[in-house]
Structure formats: structure tokens, C-alpha cells
Specification:
The protein is α+β, with helices and mostly antiparallel strands. It has four domains: 2-131, Immunoglobulin-like (Sandwich); 147-278, Jelly Rolls (Sandwich); 360-542, Glycosyltransferase; 628-721, Sandwich (Maltose phosphorylase, domain 3), CATH 2.60.420.10. Helix content is 27%, strand content 26%. The chain contains 16 helices and 33 strands. The strands form seven sheets. Strands 10, 11, 12, 13, 16, 17, 18 and 19 form an eight-stranded antiparallel sheet that branches. A seven-stranded antiparallel sheet has the order 20-25-26-27-33-29-30. Strands 3, 4, 5, 7, 8 and 9 form a six-stranded antiparallel sheet that branches. The termini are far apart. Residues 1-23 have low confidence and may be disordered.
């Protein structure tokens, strides 16, 4: 009887909350284990985490979660699996389920209602269904299945009376083709799929490198029907260590164009569709525009590249190999975070690479970087806890000599070390790839680039240890990092040139030996301007991979004009060159002349997907799970821009307009349960005065910025020229 009374009371309470809540204040964006559509996914834990977005201008101060075996029970306000009760908390991400353990392969339902500081009533979400996977069967990371999306051609042309057709789908995608053929006889047609054109309306049949062109013979029957092409496997990228496409999806190939040759007037092509395969994606989660049209197109190219290259269900290096690599995956991860509210694919890729590492020394240490980025963007430390000891090993601390520096040309690199990082073969330094992109780096045994990564891995391990409340380890890694920093600056830094040499015993100063120390905070403040000047003078003398750290180093030094000029460059080493070449997905290298075996679908070439957000706009989490965020526009002299970037707590929207001399008008909108530190640019404004929401304020000035701390919601910052 008492349970029935409670159920009736809860039902009344929930219905009342629903009726009194304003529509724009209801919690939305519900996720279970980072899955936004968990009814179609696999939640691979009996104790999942729940997250939601707090809407409106008023911060949440309480929540109440119900989990049930049916939608009907929640409709009556009854959580038969878990009723959290009213929890006084501002937290809206990674709330762990504390009911009875969930079963494998079962559908469940949940709902959340939240209270805010001002409102006396609760706002209630819609009910969300989620489905569990098979517990203990492979990875514990919850994932979504790959899906095929039918895409109509932008253009379809009948080329001649014999029934030859050409179709352009606008963008390349990994997938296959569905075609409707009507024939008066049993026949066969030839279907060509390709990424590149030889001439208008004609696919390049034998393209350079690993640019794809595929010929498939399709047998057809009399009558009219739809056919789906079966794509033949390419041996190199369809067996381990390549990622094999799941049987329910089938083999795919990247293509933008198709040609169909029927060879008979009795056979007609009625319709074609590109069946594009990718991971769950929301095109509306992010947007960017600015006053430079080239940068707009570059960002669009890079955003789409992140989406298109999710076709394997794990981050891979492109179609040439389809192998996950840590550096590729890290750049992919950051780009994915900045363009879609998606975290499961990055975590799955990271955890896969923890156990299936690749050979470059720096790639091994990228696993520490992936782990920390996962924690910083999600706020969830389960993966850190699971792999903590492995991450310690992947900092390569076991290779340190007495001064803290590491080398792979040492007896310390033995089978025990290799086993601890889960790799069977030897590891060796890479600096950059292909080799032609190293700016002449002499590759010394004790290398500046490798040790910059080692320092960075140690600093991140100290933060990871702190997050896991391992105080002794935190102090240990901090001390080791400081020791490495001292050695790097003592042994590698040329005090006369004010530049970093390539390594021990070298007098050569490559671009790479300087961008990584600057990007990772190794350069003493007194020498930042000299190191940045060298970097600026060399330009894009590196690969698409190293451009990530080149741009990071320039933004770290306040060289935003140089960084912007690289992203909107029209030279051979530019993203514009990829567009000019005809690709709609970023290339493996700047141009085929720099890497003759390149492919046209490499996400590590999509660096602006994250650097527009994290560099140009300076939007980065200051605390795990975006509890606090920094917004620091470094605009390079542009006169206006707008951006929407997703976070686990909801979208951040910003815009600015300026003439760079008399005013800078910045509008910031962040979720209500997010703290912000906004760096408002002064540019060349003389005697700047700051107004926040129309009110003059006294703010701390740091360099060419006013620094203001605010709470969530919408805020306008206006800097104007003051009187002389």
C-alpha cells in the first residue's frame, strides 16, 4: 500500500513539474555512457553514467533520476530499478547509476528532472530509452553501430544514347552504391566508383598513389529493380592489423563519383544513391564562419573529414592501410570533440590503441595525451583508472637516463619495457612523416622532439595522478618533468642562437626541434619570442601531422596572425591546396609530390577542425567535463566570426565583430552550469575601456587582453577606445 501511495505522489510531482516548467528550461541532450541515441547502441556496463544538458539562464541546484523497466512506469512516476531521490547538486554529467545491476541485451528507460536556483518547481526531461549490450564480450566502451545513409547525387548525366551515365554526389564518402536498373534482357553493366576526375564527367581510372578508383561488374536481371554493389576487398586494408568492416555493413570504398556503362539501349539506369557509412553524427552540433572565405571552406573541409573517416567504427589512418595510429587518432579525437558532441568513439579508439600500439616512439606517448584529453572533455575518469599503470609505462619513464632524458638507442629498451607497453617489435623515433617533412632534422639518438613529448607525457601523468588522488605519484611525475625540462634547456638549447638544436651532439636547428618545446611549455618565458620568430620564419615546413603542434606553438606564443595565415594559405603546403586538388576529405600529405603513395581520406590532415576552436577561438576546458571553460579569441586581425562548438554540458556559442582599432564586440553564450574565463582581445585599441553587458567594469589586463571571470549564460563584452 505504501509503495502505491509513493508512486501516486511521484506521479503527481512529475506531472506538476512538467506542466509548470518552461519549455526552454527542460533538460535535453540526454546521454547514457556518452551515447546520444542509446536505444540504437550498446551500453556495455551494468552501472552506466547519465548526463544531460541544463538549459535556460538559471543554474541547476538539484536533480532527480528515475530508471525503469518500461516507459509506462516512468509515465506514472515510478522508477522500479532506481530512484535517486532529490540530490542537491549542480552536477549534470557522469551521474553513476546506483540501482540493481542491469542485465545484458535489455532495453531500459530513464528520465531526469532538475531544480534551479530561482525556480521552485522542477523541469523534467523527455523519457530516453537505452539498450545494453553483451557484458564481458570485448570492450567495455559503449558504442553506436555504423549506419548507411542514402545520399542522392547533386548531378546525374546521361552521357550517350547507349545508356552511359555519370553521377556526382558532391562529397566523397566511404560506402557503396545502390542503383536502380531497368532492362529488357538479362545483362551486365560496369560501374566505376572514384574520388578523382580525369576530365569533366570522366573518373580517373588509374589515379596516382592510393587515390581510389574501383571497377565493379554488376549482373542484372530482366525487369526493373534496385541493386546494391558488393565492394571487393583490398587485401592490404582488410586483414589485421587493419580494421575489418563488420559483416552487417560490408566492405566499403571511398568515392564521390560514379559512372555506369550499360552498353545497350535495352538497359537503363533509373536512379543511383551513394550509401555513405559513418558513425552516429549530428551535423548541427557545430558551425563556424568568419570574414575570410578561404578559412570558412577549410573548416568545412576539415569538419566533414572528421565525419567521413568514422566509417570503421574506430579512428584509422585512411584507406591506404585502415590501421589505428596514436598520433592520427589524437588529432582525430580533438577534431571530433570540436565538431560533434561525441566521446565514445574517441574512447574506444584510445583503449584499442592502449593494447595495440604502433612503432613510433612519440606515438606511444600520444596514448597519455589521448587519455588526458578523454578525461578533460568528458570529466569521466573510469578509463584513467582502468589503464593507469599502462599509462605510466607509456610515458617511457623506464628509458630515462640519469638526467631524465630518454632514447630508443639504449640497452634500457629491452623486452620487459616493450612488454609493459604491449608492443612486440622495436620502437623508433619518427619526428615527422614522411621523412621529407622533417626540415632536415638530424635524428640524433637523444632527440629534442622525442624528449619534448616525454616531458609533456610526464606533466600529463602528474595531472592524471592528481585526478585519481595518487598524491605520491603526482609529486613523483612533477619532479621528473621538472628534471627533464632542466635537461632539455641545458643540453638542447643554443644560448647563442636562442633556438633548440635537433638533439644531443647536433648543431642543426630544425622547425620541429622548436615547435614541440614551445607547444608543450618547455621554453623559458625570456626566450619565447626568439623561438617563435624562428618558427614563424620557417612557415609550413612540416607535414599535415606536425601542423597540429606548429599551430599550437604559434597560438601559445601569441602569434595568431602567423597561425591564421598558415590555415588560410593558398600555397602547395596548405589545406586550400587539398580543395584545389579536388578532394572533399583531407589528404594524407600536403600534395602527392610530398608523398607519392598518399590517400585522399586521412583525418590527421584535418587539424583546423580543432585548431579553429581551440586556437583561433581559444575555447578549451579548464576543468574536467567543461565545468569551467576558457574562451580566448586570437583572431589574427579578422573582422568577424561566429562559432558553435559542442561540449558534454551543451553548446557554446560565440561571435565577435571588430575594426581592430576602435572597438571589439564579443558575445559569449555558455551553458548555465559552466564557469568561464574570457580573454577579451584589445587588438590595437588605444586606452581601452571594457563594458560587460553595458556596464563599465575594471578588469585585469594581461598583455593584449582583458581577463574576466563569469558564470554561465549570455554575456556581451565590449572594448572601446577611450579618451586620450
Amino acid at each position: 500500500m505504501q509503495k502505491n501511495i509513493c508512486a501516486i505522489f511521484l506521479s503527481i510531482t512529475f506531472c506538476s513539474a512538467f506542466l509548470t516548467a518552461k519549455s526552454n528550461s527542460r533538460p535535453t541532450g540526454l546521454m547514457v555512457e556518452f551515447l546520444r541515441n542509446p536505444a540504437e547502441g550498446n551500453v556495455n556496463t551494468p552501472f552506466p553514467n547519465f548526463s544531460w544538458i541544463v538549459n535556460g539562464e538559471d543554474s541547476q541546484n538539484a536533480y532527480h533520476i528515475l530508471v525503469a523497466t518500461s516507459r509506462r512506469k516512468l509515465d506514472t512516476g515510478f522508477g522500479d530499478l532506481w530512484d535517486s531521490g532529490k540530490i542537491i547538486s549542480k552536477e549534470s554529467v557522469n551521474i553513476t547509476y546506483k540501482g540493481v545491476p542491469l542485465n545484458s541485451n535489455t532495453s531500459y528507460f530513464w528520465i531526469v528532472r532538475i531544480g534551479t536556483l530561482k525556480s521552485k518547481s522542477f523541469s523534467i526531461s523527455d523519457i530516453q530509452e537505452f539498450k545494453t549490450g553483451t557484458f564481458g564480450d570485448g570492450s567495455s566502451v559503449s558504442v553506436m553501430p555504423l549506419v548507411k545513409h542514402p545520399i542522392r547525387p547533386m548531378e546525374i548525366v546521361r552521357k550517350n544514347l547507349m545508356g552511359n551515365y555519370f553521377a556526382d554526389f558532391g562529397k566523397a564518402a566511404f560506402g557503396t552504391l545502390r542503383v536502380q536498373i531497368e532492362s529488357q534482357i538479362s545483362d551486365s553493366v560496369l560501374v566505376y566508383l572514384g574520388e578523382k576526375l580525369e576530365s569533366p564527367g570522366c573518373i580517373k581510372r588509374n589515379p596516382e598513389g592510393n587515390i581510389r578508383s574501383r571497377l565493379i561488374k554488376l549482373n542484372i536481371e530482366k525487369g526493373s529493380r534496385w541493386y546494391e554493389l558488393t565492394i571487393p576487398h583490398i587485401p592490404r586494408n582488410s586483414k589485421y592489423p587493419a580494421i575489418v568492416m563488420p559483416p552487417q555493413v560490408g566492405e566499403v570504398t571511398p568515392f564521390r563519383y560514379c559512372e555506369i556503362e550499360t552498353h545497350s539501349p535495352a538497359t537503363t539506369c533509373r536512379a543511383v544513391k551513394q550509401l555513405a557509412v559513418n558513425y552516429y553524427w549530428d551535423d548541427t552540433a557545430s558551425s563556424f564562419t568568419c570574414s575570410d572565405t578561404i578559412l570558412n571552406k577549410v573548416w568545412d573541409l576539415c569538419k566533414y573529414s572528421i565525419k567521413a573517416t568514422t566509417f570503421c567504427g574506430v579512428y584509422v589512418d585512411g584507406d591506404r592501410e585502415r590501421i589505428p595510429y596514436e598520433a592520427d587518432a589524437y588529432i582525430n579525437q580533438l577534431g571530433h570533440y570540436c565538431t560533434d558532441r561525441e566521446y565514445s568513439l574517441a574512447r574506444y579508439s584510445h583503449e584499442y590503441l592502449m593494447m595495440h600500439p604502433t612503432w613510433p616512439t612519440e606515438w606511444i606517448m600520444h596514448s597519455v595525451m589521448m587519455a588526458y584529453a578523454d578525461y578533460l572533455y568528458t570529466g569521466d575518469q573510469k578509463s584513467l583508472e582502468k589503464f593507469y599503470n599502462d599509462l605510466k609505462n607509456k610515458s617511457l619513464i623506464s628509458l630515462e637516463r640519469e638526467d631524465g632524458l630518454i632514447s630508443t638507442k639504449t640497452p634500457l629498451l629491452n623486452d620487459t619495457v616493450l612488454h609493459a607497453i604491449h608492443i612486440q617489435g622495436p620502437i623508433r623515433d619518427i619526428v615527422d612523416w614522411p621523412q621529407i617533412e622533417r626540415d632536415g632534422n638530424e635524428m640524433p639518438d637523444v632527440n629534442t622532439v622525442v624528449n619534448a613529448f616525454h616531458y609533456h607525457a610526464l606533466t600529463l601523468m602528474a595531472r592524471i595522478a592528481k585526478a585519481l588522488e595518487k598524491q605520491d605519484d603526482e609529486l613523483f611525475f612533477k619532479n621528473r618533468a621538472e628534471k627533464v625540462k632542466m635537461a632539455v634547456n641545458k643540453i638542447f638549447f643554443d644560448q647563442h642562437k636562442k633556438q633548440y638544436r635537433d638533439g644531443e651532439g647536433s648543431d642543426h636547428t630544425s622547425l620541429h626541434a622548436n615547435i614541440f618545446p614551445l607547444a608543450f611549455g618547455l621554453v623559458p618565458e625570456a626566450f619565447v619570442s626568439e623561438v617563435a620568430a624562428l618558427i614563424r620564419s620557417k612557415g609550413m615546413r612540416c607535414s599535415v601531422y606536425a601542423s597540429q603542434y606548429l599551430l599550437e606553438s604559434l597560438y601559445a606564443a601569441g602569434e595568431d596572425k602567423a597561425a591564421l595565415d598558415l590555415m588560410r594559405s593558398t600555397g602547395d603546403r596548405s589545406w586550400w591546396n587539398m580543395i584545389r586538388a579536388g578532394s572533399t576529405i583531407t589528404l594524407e600529405a600536403w600534395d602527392i609530390k610530398f608523398k607519392p603513395n598518399l590517400d585522399w581520406n586521412h583525418a590527421w590532415g584535418a587539424v583546423p577542425a580543432n585548431m579553429v576552436t581551440r586556437g583561433f577561438w581559444g575555447i578549451v576546458p579548464l576543468s574536467p567535463g567543461f565545468e569551467a571553460v576558457q574562451i580566448k579569441p586570437q583572431t589574427g586581425g579578422l573582422t568577424g566570426s561566429t562559432i558553435q562548438t559542442p561540449t558534454i554540458r551543451g553548446a557554446i556559442n560565440c561571435s565577435f565583430k571588430t575594426d581592430n582599432q576602435t572597438s571589439f564586440d564579443l558575445n559569449v553564450s555558455v551553458p548555465s552550469n559552466m564557469k568561464t574565463v574570457v580573454w577579451v582581445p584589445l587588438r590595437d585599441i588605444v586606452n581601452p575601456i571594457l563594458k560587460v553587458n553595458g556596464q563599465s567594469v575594471a578588469a585585469r589586463q594581461q598583455g593584449k587582453f582583458f581577463v574576466v571571470k563569469t558564470e554561465g549564460g549570455e554575456t556581451r563584452f565590449l572594448v572601446q577606445k577611450g579618451s586620450q
